Amino acid sequence: MSGNFLDTEEVIRATGGMLLNGDMGIVFSGVSTDTRTLRPGELFVALRGKRFDGHEFWRQAVEAGAKGLVLSRIPGDLEWEEFPKTVSVILVRDTLRALGEIARYYKDKQGFRALAITGSCGKTSTKEMCAAVLSRRFRVFRNPGNFNNLIGLPLSVLAVPPDTEIGVFELGISVPGEMSRLREILDPVAAIITNVRPAHLEGLGSMEQVLEEKFRLYAELPETARIIVNRDEEELYRRSRDLPQPRITYGLHIEAEVRAEDIRVRPEGTEFTLWVEEKRFPGVRISFLGDHFVRNALAAVAAGLVFGVPPEEALSALAEMKPVPGRLRPIRTKRYFLLDDTYNANPGSMYEALKTFWEVAQEFSPRVAILGDMLELGDEAERFHESVGYMAGRIARWVWAVGEYASVVARAAGKVGAQTRAYARVEELLQELDLPAGAAVLIKGSRAMGLERVVEKLREE
């Protein structure tokens, strides 16, 4: 990602690295970890992964115009006699850690404040809502897509424009220790944990470990930071009471400082009454569907209060927002009412999607749930898929499942009266996709399932 300026001396100061070639005055226009997208003038950080080693691509980086390389070893085919003196080469112990340290240095240099958002469900929607609210009074940057891990977060920080006042960043973890490092890199002044649900169990092991790792975002903040707490998440709230940081709560709970009541979910959107510290705002409407999006909106209102955006301005920003593709977006076609929730799935988000589907699809017939696998659930995968099947079977007349656990979902749904089909691959489902006019269709599964192709085909009919 480019558009920013650090010189060699600053990179060495940030990383503690050793300059092997070039000079301290060489300036970089940005940082890249991928020679395929590297732009002339950027610093190339050679990362190592299970299936790749960026050190093998040092030559491509230089040929693409890199002005510097950050390496943890000297490639065997690098000949110093032939290497250009106009390219800095910096040796560090660990290039991934160095990437994070460069991002930390850059953030301190730019001086913007950061809001961090994590959770098992709703990170991206909450991030987008918070960014919209804060944009009413500040110049705001938000990290793109799911650039939220130990590689994506530093690259996002390094992409922040120089005039930014607040950065809104989602943080995603899949193994122990990641949250502590992400928080260290970002050093946020405020944080939100949306919820804790079964997700990334392959790497985190158990729900208890998920909670422990997520909660580190709150627990490891400095005492001057603000924590924005979902009052409906009882364990998060209970633990947060023991922390020294100033806290503001949101949710549907009667004790929440930013609270919603009288929620009405319709195909066109969701309406509710907002309470902010005992001030009532009736008739609030957002274009998003379901209680969980209301909670995301409440988190954004609370974030606005933390940074100085009044509720009236926050509500105006939220009213202008539209659902993004793949995140429970309602679509009306000539034949169907579709709920496109194909971006990702875990047991928590499946429950919310099915609940919302039940609320908004009453006027349609038949109700059809097309569900793909939920990935990274480890040893609990079959149990969670069976639970989803039971719930889907009670809500939809037809349940069509796709993936490795399709038969588990279909069998459970069939036990409670649904008509079911099970497919190993999306391509097989597409060949038999034939629904009557007037149907309401929920399409949801993990991103890797590719269920957006089902949405595309139904929209064409």
TrEMBL record:
GO terms for molecular function: ATP binding; UDP-N-acetylmuramoyl-tripeptide-D-alanyl-D-alanine ligase activity. Residues 326-447 form the Mur ligase C-terminal domain. Pathway: Cell wall biogenesis; peptidoglycan biosynthesis. Residues 29-106 form the Mur ligase N-terminal catalytic domain. It catalyses: D-alanyl-D-alanine + UDP-N-acetyl-alpha-D-muramoyl-L-alanyl-gamma-D-glutamyl-meso-2,6-diaminopimelate + ATP = UDP-N-acetyl-alpha-D-muramoyl-L-alanyl-gamma-D-glutamyl-meso-2,6-diaminopimeloyl-D-alanyl-D-alanine + ADP + phosphate + H(+). It holds the Pfam family Mur_ligase_M. ATP binds at G119, S120, C121, G122, K123, T124, S125. GO terms for cellular component: cytoplasm. It is found in: Cytoplasm. Keywords: ATP-binding, Cell cycle, Cell division, Cell shape, Cell wall biogenesis/degradation, Cytoplasm, Ligase, Nucleotide-binding, Peptidoglycan synthesis. GO terms for biological process: cell division; cell wall organization; peptidoglycan biosynthetic process; regulation of cell shape. Residues 117-303 form the Mur ligase central domain. Its EC number is 6.3.2.10. Its main location: cytoplasm. The keyword tRNA-binding does not apply. Belongs to the MurCDEF family. MurF subfamily. NCBIfam families: murF (TIGR01143). PANTHER family: UDP-N-ACETYLMURAMOYL-TRIPEPTIDE--D-ALANYL-D-ALANINE LIGASE. Involved in cell wall formation. Catalyzes the final step in the synthesis of UDP-N-acetylmuramoyl-pentapeptide, the precursor of murein. This is UDP-N-acetylmuramoyl-tripeptide--D-alanyl-D-alanine ligase. The gene is murF.
